[in-house]
UniProtKB/TrEMBL annotation:
Domain ABC transmembrane type-1: 22-302
UniProt GO cellular component terms: plasma membrane
Membrane-spanning ranges: 12-36, 159-177
Domain ABC transporter: 352-586
Location of the protein in the cell: Cell membrane
Organism per entry: Candidatus Caccovicinus merdipullorum
CDD domains given in the database record: ABC_6TM_exporters
One Pfam short name: ABC_tran
Signal peptide: none
InterPro entries in alphabetical order: AAA+_ATPase (IPR003593), ABC1_TM_dom (IPR011527), ABC1_TM_sf (IPR036640), ABC_transporter-like_ATP-bd (IPR003439), ABC_transporter-like_CS (IPR017871), P-loop_NTPase (IPR027417), Type_1_exporter (IPR039421)
Keywords: ATP-binding, Cell membrane, Membrane, Nucleotide-binding, Transmembrane, Transmembrane helix, Transport
Protein name: ABC transporter ATP-binding protein
Tree of life domain: Bacteria
Length: 600
């Protein structure tokens, strides 16, 4: 498996390696100052014990100067390391965001919002710790250990042997603990996905939860997940605490032995009292970094668990890669990189043609089993059928949100594989019954249909969608924020903003997922008039839940068992007395039953 995530982190690290280099250089200078200061103190102590005079003023001035430079170097080291960490994390998060936007929609269906959000927030932070925190600290600790042990060697090489005596034991202990922590981390990360998913569902479904008094059920669900996370956290804490305890023992014992041995060396006259004082001061600067170097294996393995999860996401083929693999010859023959080029390459009169298209969301459970149809330019075509027959799936494949598994899909006479996916999507405008608005201004939500559009053009689109007067009457007009998912405005207003967005895009093919299904009668008429304006002269494809709304369509396709079982005009299908006639008869009968109650 290609290590795409690791490669991404390494490239980001190399990009800012100069900051890491500055941090290491400043660490060298800082350690040099500490050693120099200790050396001066040791020499002064030896002179005092020998009964010689010491210029204390000069000593204090010298040490003060070293202290100032030490503070400067320490500040610079922390600053450069902090910037390195922030810049690496920023670059990786941006590139992960770009990668997420390129992934096929099926990836988000499989992993759910919780899995994707956890990887984007928690996993990338944990995996990035190796490059942004662990690696810099490791390098600085190595520099410190090398410099200080080098200084100790000048005194007595045997001190180094004692210092590193527990090193092999530390390695064995750290290895065993890190493996246990990695196993726990895998379970912890999985439960984090569940927690995020549960919280996301709770927020998205808060109205339903309260309407059906499901607060206790939701509380139990998220409470169970949180309890599991806490259990994993407690297990991890117990093992980590055991590691800290063993680390403390394995570093403290050599430290005490070193002190006793240094005292023994002083009594034997092999090192001076000043050198022992210097050794005592510097020992703490080397003994703990040694432990940190060894036990960083715990952090590395924990970060590795998050990295593995990111690898699975990064190794998922992008939307374009999936499309290329679906090509007959393993690649594109010609790329239609603009909607204009693809539509006007010849005088093809067919807008969309499908032949034997198959698709399934789950292996072994096909939704489309060989769908075939042909829609000419300027035609209005409708798809009808029962729930689960594939109407919405057809829309998703038309827009390139999902890739067909078998069959042929021609857009303006060109294979869909030969189109640039963004150019293909430029051919479509969608008006759905489930309108999604971004938590931005009304102008932003309209203008996103045509980036770079002027305020005047957006207003014209809103006039065509019969929404301008409403917007103009708001205190902040087009700058009014609609809230998350557009909750600050009504369903009909959201629908008309969606129509204005589609009008502004001015795509040649309009996809209508019965946009009037969830509004009142008065609003329905206004929306139908607005839809008629944007659909004038366009190819229109409609998903119909109410057959009465598509009686005027040029061609109606009746979906059953994953394919178009019938097709024709409304009158033709009624004369056939088949599936459509049966569905239409049931709808008429249902409407007649409701009339006495509704006053219709």
């Amino acid at each position: 498996m290609v290590k795409k995530a690791r490669g991404l982190f390494w490239r980001a690290s190399i990009r800012y390696v100069f900051l890491l280099g500055i941090s290491v250089i400043l660490a060298v200078l800082l350690n040099g100052i500490v050693i120099a200061g200790n050396d001066r103190v040791a020499q002064a102590a030896d002179r005092i014990f020998a009964g010689q005079a010491v210029d204390m003023g000069k000593l204090l001035v010298g040490l003060s100067g070293l202290a100032v430079w030490g503070a400067v170097f320490s500040f610079g080291k922390s600053l450069s390391a902090g910037h390195y960490s922030a810049l690496v994390s920023r670059r990786v998060r941006k590139q992960l965001g770009e990668h997420l936007l390129k992934l096929p929609c099926a990836c988000f269906d499989e992993r759910g919002a919780g899995g994707v959000l956890t990887r984007f927030s928690s996993d990338i932070g944990e995996a990035g710790r190796f490059y942004s925190e662990i690696l810099p600290d490791l390098l600085v600790n190595l520099v410190t250990v090398v410099m200080v042990t080098g200084y100790f060697t000048r005194m007595d090489g045997r001190l180094i042997l004692i210092l590193f005596a527990s090193y092999p034991v530390m390695l064995v202990v750290a290895d065993k603990l890190s493996k246990k922590l990695a196993r726990i981390a895998k379970g912890f990360r999985t439960r984090m996905d569940d927690r995020t998913e549960a919280a996301y569902d709770l927020i998205q479904g808060i109205e339903i939860l309260r309407s059906y008094n499901l607060e206790e059920t939701a509380d139990r669900r998220i409470g169970t997940v949180i309890d599991d996370i806490a259990d994993h956290g407690c297990k991890s804490t117990r093992i980590s605490s055991m590691g800290w305890l063993l680390k403390g023992v394995l570093t403290t014992v050599p430290e005490v032995v070193c002190y006793l041995f240094a005292l023994y060396e002083v009594l034997g006259g092999r090192i001076t009292t000043g050198e022992m004082l210097s050794f005592a001061v510097l020992l703490g600067r080397v003994i703990y970094p040694i432990g940190d170097i060894v036990f960083c294996a715990n952090d590395i393995r924990t970060a590795g668990v998050a990295m593995e999860r990111l690898e699975r996401l990064f190794n998922r083929p992008t939307e374009e890669e999936e499309r290329l693999s679906a090509c007959d010859f393993g690649g594109k023959t010609e790329t239609y990189d603009s909607a204009e080029k693809g539509r006007n390459g010849d005088r093809e009169e067919t807008a969309i043609s499908w032949s034997g298209v198959k698709f399934s969301y789950e292996l072994g459970n096909p939704v489309l089993k060989g769908a075939s149809f042909c829609i000419r330019k300027g035609e209005t075509a409708a798809f009808v059928g029962g729930s689960g027959e594939g109407k919405s799936t057809i829309f998703k494949i038309l827009c390139g949100l999902y890739t067909k598994e078998e069959g042929e899909y021609l857009l303006y006479g060109r294979r869909i594989e030969d189109w640039d996916i963004q150019a293909a999507r430029d051919c479509f405008s969608i008006v759905s019954q489930n309108v999604f608005l971004f938590p931005e201004s009304i102008f932003w939500n309209v203008a996103c249909g045509k980036p770079g559009v002027s305020r005047k053009e957006a207003e014209e689109a809103c006039r065509a969608a019969r929404i301008h007067d409403f917007i103009a009457g708001l205190p902040e007009g087009y700058d009014t924020l609609v809230g998350e998912r557009g909750v600050k405005i009504s369903g009909g207003e959201r629908q008309r903003i969606s129509i204005a967005r589609a009008f502004l895009k001015n795509a040649p093919i309009i996809l209508l997922d019965e946009p009037t299904s969830a509004v009142d009668t008065g609003t329905e008429q206004e929306i139908q008039e607005a839809v008629s304006r944007i659909a004038a002269g366009k190819t229109v494809i409609v998903i119909a839940h109410r057959l009465s709304t598509v009686k005027s369509a040029d061609r109606i396709y009746v979906l059953q068992d994953g394919h178009a079982a019938e097709s024709g005009t409304h009158k033709e299908l009624l004369r056939k007395k088949g599936i459509y006639a049966n569905l239409y008869g049931k709808e008429v009968e249902e409407n007649e039953k409701q009339s006495p109650c509704t006053g219709i």
